DNA sequence: CTGTTAGCGCGTTCAT
DNA sequence: ATGAACGCGCTAACAG
């Protein structure tokens, strides 16, 4: 196997007895180039299977045409769908996607950011790990002019672009839906207290019940750290309340599944003795014999696509020469979560 | 926000009144460098937060330290797990991972390969789309010295590295398991005929039944194109056989789920009237009230990790100078699929 | 319309 | 022990 090196514009130039810049221009359809030369160059390029060396272009243009995506994991359908959204937009803009999974480990998250920074990615899209409390490594990116867009699990920092789902509307719909079904004691399994969304959920819960003139019992609002064991403990606590809740709103579908598992273990019939509504939605729900009654769709694909679109805009904005640079502004896009009622089986 | 450019060795050199090569050497702990100068350089580099410009290094070394991963989608847990395995190994070797989803579209697959080639990735890992029949774009990569490793869905080409699961042993275990449970009429839902694995499965099926001296009825072996509709049709055909099969072996877990859905629709009780065993395994199986009796684990994480390891070896092999180049050899790693019997609920 | 040249950041000879 | 100079492939400013 001969080490068949890829052709460069220099070789093309030599074979045609023209200069490299002529070749470069011809390949870029530069206006002031003789039609004849242009043809000759393009033909030879095709014959030689010439492909521009991106590496050289990146180097020259000080860009990598790669964006980094950092998220907890790819295993959850929510995130893999988000990546698909990001990939679609990035590809359209000729950008490549570099992936790093933090596995919810703050140290690993930081490490990934560092690697991506050294790699000189042009921008980064992040969904935070659930234990991340320190945001210094993100703030540091500003120094390097690497724009960051957060999605779904976003930090409470004003000067960053963010895309997230508005859980309030979904929560409202969900609770009203359950009340409509006749439920009066509705339990909530929240995520860790650190998550902004948890606190908001509790607030919305209180608002709705107040509006509907139902009694508020905060012992019906419990927390899980998202692990199976913790969720089971949460369920145990909920079910020990008298009278026990007849419906439960779970922070996400995996938590709902764990909760349902616990319910079955203590011989409760799902959707009969106790009903579930969860956030997020995965295609596998369709295969459950007793799926949650409904789930609040958070549109991961759209969130990813939107985050990527914002990033692409940022990257392609050519600062108007001479103009005073406009003050940097940050978007905080909120996609309305929407209740999806599942079909009866 | 000031356009704070990243420091380069040139700037460090100027500030210290030394030459760039001295800085370069100092940073690399080159032996013949004065201890004092070395210290001064390294200190300043730290102070300035100097980070070598990977882009420049890639360009110079004609390497990108990026590997491409092309697979049908990330949505299926099988593939996202495989990516995790790849990512782990790549990261350890200081490589980045570029992802492209073919969505089982041969055209898109080809497009992704082209992009990655132009991007000059150092190597590519591929799991084929289910409709890919033409492998020219992969063979073409040889010209560019971009090594390719296939995993899971591998082509029938001798001169490529491959990692796949050996379905024969798993199939054997699965069928023997069902026979052990007393089943005599066992149906098989195969994938498309194009897939090598489908033909092999049929062969193994016949072998086992012969060995066990059971009657072979090939009308119990049907195909699906993996879509829900097609699987339902396959089930309909199977269930129309007299006597109808009491157990079914499905090519993967999604097909098994679709098949179970159909069974329920025609009022059969899962795990009672009809049992299922499937290939592949996803964590969600644990949440089903009536999961398949067993599944053949294909170890996606390990397959991905192994494929990445092979690729890393290829990339790091420095051809011994002067030595006659050894003839290229190709690995064909086969991981034994293993039957996992699920716990009763 | 086309050629010449500089330079992006770095590692690496070849000198000194 | 250190410096000067080159070149990787490409683009663009400048010069005809």
Description:
Two copies of one chain form a homodimer. By secondary structure, chain A is α/β, with parallel strands linked by helices. The first copy, chain A, folds into three domains: 9-52, no CATH class; 64-164 and 300-317 and 329-334, Rossmann fold (3-Layer(aba) Sandwich); 167-297, Rossmann fold, CATH 3.40.50. In chain A, 42% of the residues lie in helices and 16% in strands. The first copy, chain A, is built from twelve helices and twelve strands. In chain A, the strands form two sheets. In chain A, strands 2-1-3-4-5-11 form a six-stranded parallel beta sheet, with helices on both faces. A six-stranded mixed beta sheet of chain A has the order 7-6-8-9-10-12, with helices on both faces. In chain A, helix 2 (20-27) packs across helix 3 (35-47), helix 8 packs across helix 9 and helix 10 (228-239) packs across helix 11. The mean pLDDT of chain A is 89. Chains A and B meet through helix 4, helix 5, strand 2, helix 6 and helix 11 of A and helix 4, helix 5, strand 2, helix 6 and helix 11 of B. Chain A binds a DNA duplex (16 and 16 nucleotides) through helix 2 and helix 4.
């Amino acid at each position: 196997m001969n080490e068949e090196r890829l052709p460069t514009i220099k070789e093309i130039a030599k074979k045609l007895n023209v200069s490299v810049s002529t070749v470069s221009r011809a390949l870029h359809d530069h206006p002031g180039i003789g039609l004849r030369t242009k043809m000759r160059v393009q033909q030879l390029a095709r014959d030689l299977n010439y492909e521009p060396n991106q590496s050289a272009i990146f180097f020259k243009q000080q860009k990598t045409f790669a964006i980094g995506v950092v998220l907890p994991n790819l295993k959850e359908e929510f995130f893999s769908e988000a990546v698909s959204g990001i990939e679609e937009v990035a590809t359209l803009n000729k950008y490549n996607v570099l992936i790093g999974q933090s596995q919810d480990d703050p140290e690993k998250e930081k490490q990934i950011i560092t690697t991506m920074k050294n790699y000189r990615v042009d921008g980064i899209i992040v969904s935070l790990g659930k234990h991340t409390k320190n945001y210094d490594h993100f703030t540091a990116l500003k120094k390097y002019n690497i724009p960051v867009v957060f999605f779904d699990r976003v930090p409470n920092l004003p000067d960053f672009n963010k895309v997230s789902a508005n859980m309030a509307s979904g929560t409202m719909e969900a609770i009203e839906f359950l009340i409509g079904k006749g439920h009066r004691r509705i339990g909530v399994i929240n995520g860790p207290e650190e998550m902004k969304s948890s606190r908001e959920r509790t607030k919305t819960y209180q608002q709705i019940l107040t509006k509907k003139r139902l009694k508020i019992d905060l012992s019906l609002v419990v927390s899980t750290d998202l692990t199976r064991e913790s969720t089971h403990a949460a369920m145990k606590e909920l079910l020990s309340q008298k009278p026990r809740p007849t419906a439960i709103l779970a922070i996400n579908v995996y938590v709902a599944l764990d909760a349902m598992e616990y319910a079955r273990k203590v011989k409760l019939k799902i959707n009969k003795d106790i009903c579930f509504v969860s956030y997020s939605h995965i295609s596998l729900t369709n295969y459950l014999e007793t799926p949650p009654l409904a789930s609040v769709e958070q549109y991961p694909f759209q969130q990813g696509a939107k985050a990527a679109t914002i990033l692409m805009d940022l990257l392609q904005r050519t600062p108007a020469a001479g103009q005073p640079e406009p003050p940097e502004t940050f978007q905080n896009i909120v996609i309305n979560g929407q209740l999806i009622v599942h079909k009866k089986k």
